[in-house]
Write a structure and sequence with these properties.
By secondary structure, the chain is mainly alpha-helical. Helix content is 77%, strand content 0%. The protein starts with a helix and ends with a helix.
Length: 485
């Protein structure tokens, strides 16, 4: 009987008499929530077109050297790490919906500070505020979407988080071609304002409401999300069966149902960053300029091409993840990234004949020392390698870790465990982006990409042995799986 009701709930009906789910308002709630990741993407993409402009600006108080430009790109990750901690507290105390609405405040104030900046420190402060908002967003939105969705579409909707992040990055790159840095900041502030407006009309998640014993509000939330014909009482009973009213205490971290998903989530966040994706995307335009990729032409347009590839393949992942499963996409993604970063390392090894130039942190990928004709004859290898890397990341290691950490944590610990994972992600993002110069100086550019390739290989092994497949399971079934372990 329960299996039959479950099929009816998810729309797999044998007859018209079976209650059916209507997904229209669920999609609307998801759209409102993913305006947060869109804002987050604009924050990440903002530095790439702006850094070259600020390094050449006439005002000496705003002009940046290479070290200041590095901080401008990476300080956002420090704010995001703090935002991950704050988001973990807010999401359990004030709820998923209100946390998401509150994070629009530091987004807007951060851009106001950037727009009115009179010196480099104001730019740093504005970037830190937008980073704080990004950290809250990166924690709250996956949790919100996973808790309002049903298993049939949870993978697709959860992957829309990363899809909107890369869409925001692309939007910042495209707008940066024509807009000056202050006007670009004005544009970047719009999505968070729209999110605040839309989320005010969306419901709180039924799981949070039931955890607070608000049964009637949970029914109203499900009525909005599933339509009037679904069996709301049945779904409430399924959620309530998994709700544990007692709070989380430190002794419970010895419990495998707590520490196993936590370790898996933190490892996923670690591997997502040590592939080097943020090092490439934060400085995409600068990398193209210094690498002299003349095949594509203008370096800004080259960055747009890279971001477009990321959007397309993230969309492919979103459309296929509920059919292929999470682990298959992680395997494919890891293999493609390992091969492409190895090829990228080979490219720089072949082109950079003078090790003194290649290990200079201020020049990064300077190719002036290459023998005449070498660069143009194999520049296709760099373009193909970068394209493959971005496509591979977008297929798996971009969207899947954020989706999985929103699925595997028990309800009573979802805030604090998600916070630990987001903190891990952003601390690693800071270390990779900030120390990218030093890696190039110490290992050379080829050695740095070969190190990224080695981490990609490790990520494949980790996926095979430790990551559970969550396709088609309810959040309560996933929680029960870890309790049984």
């Amino acid at each position: 009987m329960a299996a039959e009701e479950s099929r009816c709930l998810l729309g797999h009906t044998a007859s018209d008499s079976c209650p059916r789910v209507q997904n229209k308002k669920l999609y609307l709630a998801t759209f409102a929530a993913v305006l947060g990741p869109l804002s987050f993407g604009f924050v990440l993409g903002y530095s790439s077109p702006v850094i070259p402009e600020l390094r050449k600006i006439s005002d000496p108080k705003l002009r940046m050297d290479s070290s200041q430009a590095s901080w401008f790109g990476s300080v956002v990750t420090l704010g995001a790490a703090a935002g991950g901690i704050l988001g973990g507290y807010l999401v359990d105390k004030v709820g998923r919906k209100l946390s998401l609405m509150l994070c629009s405040i530091p987004y807007v104030f951060g851009y106001i500070v950037i727009i009115s900046a009179q010196n480099v420190w104001m730019l740093y402060f504005g970037r830190t505020l937008t980073g704080l908002a990004s950290g809250i967003t990166s924690l709250v939105v996956p949790v919100y979407i996973s808790e309002v969705s049903h298993p049939k579409v949870r993978g697709m909707l959860g992957s829309c988080v990363q899809l909107m992040v890369v869409t925001g990055i692309l939007g910042a790159y495209v707008a940066g071609v024509t807009l000056k840095w202050r006007w670009l900041a004005v544009l970047c502030s719009f999505p968070s304002c729209i999110m605040l407006l839309f989320m005010s009309f969306m419901p709180e998640t039924p799981r949070f409401l039931l955890n607070r014993n608000n049964h009637s509000e949970a029914i109203a939330s499900l009525h909005f999300l599933r339509g009037p014909h679904a069996d709301h009482e049945w779904e409430c009973r399924q959620i309530e069966a998994g709700v544990q009213e007692e709070g989380l205490n430190l002794s419970e971290f010895k419990n495998p149902s707590i520490y196993r998903p936590l370790l898996i989530g933190m490892a996923l966040m670690f591997f997502q960053q040590v592939t080097g994706i943020n090092a490439v995307m934060f400085y995409a335009e600068t990398i193209f300029e210094d690498a002299n990729f003349k095949v594509i032409g203008d370096s800004r347009m080259a960055s747009v091409v890279v971001a477009s590839i990321q959007v397309c393949f993230t969309a492919v992942a979103a459309l296929t993840i509920d059919k292929t499963g999470r682990k298959v996409l992680l395997y494919i993604s890891g293999i493609i990234m390992a091969l492409s970063t190895a090829l990228f390392g080979l490219y720089f090894k072949m082109v950079l004949s003078n090790r003194n130039n290649s290990s200079n942190p201020d020049t990064w990928f300077t190719l002036n020392s290459a023998s005449p004709g070498t660069e143009s004859s194999i520049s296709w290898l760099a373009v193909v390698s970068l394209g493959l890397f971005v496509a591979g990341f977008a297929l798996g290691w971009g969207p899947v870790p954020w989706l999985v950490i929103s699925e595997i944590f028990p309800l009573k610990a979802r805030g604090i465990l998600s916070s630990a994972c987001v903190l891990t992600n952003w601390v690693m993002a800071f270390l990779v982006t900030k120390e990218f110069h030093d890696f190039i100086g110490f290992l050379t550019s080829s050695g740095t990409f070969w190190l990224f390739s080695a981490f990609c290989c490790l990520s494949i092994t980790f996926t095979a042995f430790y990551v559970p497949e969550t396709k088609g399971q309810t959040l309560e079934q996933i929680e029960a799986y870890f309790r049984r372990s």
